[in-house]
């Protein structure tokens, strides 16, 4: 992974200086009520979802001359009892766990005590039906007074600053806006919709529009909310601790969508750290790092896709994937602009799915999204969360599934994100040897902690449910599974049984897969797992990890190594192309030619090939034909569909200019792209190429040992036994009268259905024009055979006429 750059913190705005307020409490009557009455006591909220509220920031403009003060009504008022010094100090220090016990309105003998913490205010006045009471200035931003009323009224606060006067609701008059069931499930680590309970949720609570803020920070001594709505000074917004769950909560009336915020956390040692929300569903555009209050408004139009995407198990369905880095596919396009171009392009090429490199928010673009700081937020570089929903919706309406790269293996060390979040290791493992990822300078999650596992499991289903994602490709699974991954002796400790397996990670992956599949019919999970771990795609109830598919890294490495050899030397490496069939049915595989293979000195796919430009393109085309016919699903990274010669760079993306008709060699690249479209078209129409991908009965070698000829010939069968013959010839010579044994089913002859040497693809157009009649000449253990012409450096597919 590329080293990461630090990101700046959100700026803090200056606020007004405090002005001493009058000492007495002034009381006057007013004619109009300030708010609807509410009971003095009410049960705690039991639901976490409510109607979203629009953002309502107080205006900071000059409020004009102060209102003339009227005389009291004769009821009188008195100063409040002095605030306990310990409470006062803890509130100012930001380490109070129960601010609602001190702030807000509380019945006392002889009236109702109201206390507010409003730093930099000149005066604070309580407004209620028939009542206007200016509070006593206690210093340090505290204001208090005893109202001459028998019970807590519905009230608002009028807060006067040097240049402005505003009316606001008092956050400390509200009951918790999170239910007991939510807290119970969080404590157990079983809240499958965690995003509905934690984070910033616009809602109407006790009849008032605002935003509920909730945060899990069990080691914190105190937590305050800081944002653009309080000039990035959280002194007046301390949150309350909700028991032993480690959850902190505060409902802020008047704060709505678009508000910027962070959490000011008092660590166990009394120091402070300001952090972005781990559950934020929207974030600022990097390098800014604040979280943003958001709500969804997109109206989905993909009901038909969602209802039928699971009609056929993915391992028995056509599954051809175009891998995309959204930020560089067409640099500068937003999610909505991509929605106008990407679906049509992918559909024209015939791919069934796109795989998006990580979409979750990340501070450093050079990490390509693989070092995530905002696990619940689509990157704001390209638009809002609803904009991303719009893109997914457009792809679905074009008949294209959406797979997303998901990175639960590690996270970066940025001091505004997850690392030592509340002053101690929280999301990362407490053991430094277990926490530090040896390869990327990042931290590994503590999969054994129930709340951390819950954070990740809920995140997986969040993307599927909130954004209609059809699949999750899980990155770096091998680094999660092994305690000794990239570690030397003495740098790791064995598990409780003395082994090297990370049992916590195994349990997490099993829980994640079981939860995603149970909640989201039709979704597929895919493991990027590069070792021989047994049972990656075996169901969890049979002891497997529970993935639907696994990247076949062995096939990718072996086949690319073979293709890089000069044809004259390939006969010595013939087994590198056949070895994959030894284990082809041990898992449900995807054959990946991904971004990792065409970047950082590895060369583009066509550039890996030997020979001159014609031979390189011919090798490229023949290899794609071999890949599409091989058992397993296909994945191809953007740019490789038109034989881009340069490595991929996230800075400029694919070299689209190669397809411009004004470029002299554009036909060479257009020909390769046309081949990819035809590969996908034939692939989708011929069940033999995908229906029995995971069944040995779906494959049979005709000749896997023709090393001297650089030829690989095999048959694929559908569920009814109908065959397709695939012949790959990786030599630059033309071979005529080449005999191959075939099944007796092709009595009418065999016809070409695809030839990568066709002229329209840029080839030499060496063809088998007529149906090839099967002759009663035994070959390759079969009683019948055909005699064909093999084009140079080409793959040819045949079907019975």
TrEMBL record:
Enzyme category, top tier: transferase
Active-site positions on this chain: 475 (nucleophile), 528 (proton donor)
Cited Pfam families: Alpha-amylase (PF00128), Alpha-amylase_C (PF02806), CBM_48 (PF02922), GlgB_N (PF22019)
Biased composition regions of type Basic and acidic residues, renumbered to the chain: 85-97
Limits of the Glycosyl hydrolase family 13 catalytic domain: 323-663
Record pathway: Glycan biosynthesis; glycogen biosynthesis
Basic residues composition-biased segments: 1-12
Keywords from the named record: Carbohydrate metabolism, Glycogen biosynthesis, Glycogen metabolism, Glycosyltransferase, Transferase
GO terms, biological process: glycogen biosynthetic process
UniProt GO MF annotations: 1,4-alpha-glucan branching enzyme activity; cation binding; hydrolase activity, hydrolyzing O-glycosyl compounds
Catalysed reactions listed for this entry: Transfers a segment of a (1->4)-alpha-D-glucan chain to a primary hydroxy group in a similar glucan chain
E.C. designation(s): 2.4.1.18
Region: Disordered, residue numbers: 1-97
Biased segments, Low complexity type: 16-51
Cellular component, GO, one term: cytosol
CDD domains membership: AmyAc_Glg_BE, E_set_GBE_prok_N
InterPro entries: A-amylase/branching_C (IPR006048), Branching_enzy (IPR037439), GH (IPR017853), GH13_cat_dom (IPR006047), GlgB (IPR006407), GlgB_N (IPR054169), GlgB_N_E_set_prok (IPR044143), Glyco_hydro_13_N (IPR004193)
Described purpose of this protein according to its UniProt entry: Catalyzes the formation of the alpha-1,6-glucosidic linkages in glycogen by scission of a 1,4-alpha-linked oligosaccharide from growing alpha-1,4-glucan chains and the subsequent attachment of the oligosaccharide to the alpha-1,6 position.
Subunit structure and binding partners: Monomer.
Family per record: Belongs to the glycosyl hydrolase 13 family. GlgB subfamily.
Protein name: 1,4-alpha-glucan branching enzyme GlgB
Gene symbol of the encoding locus: glgB
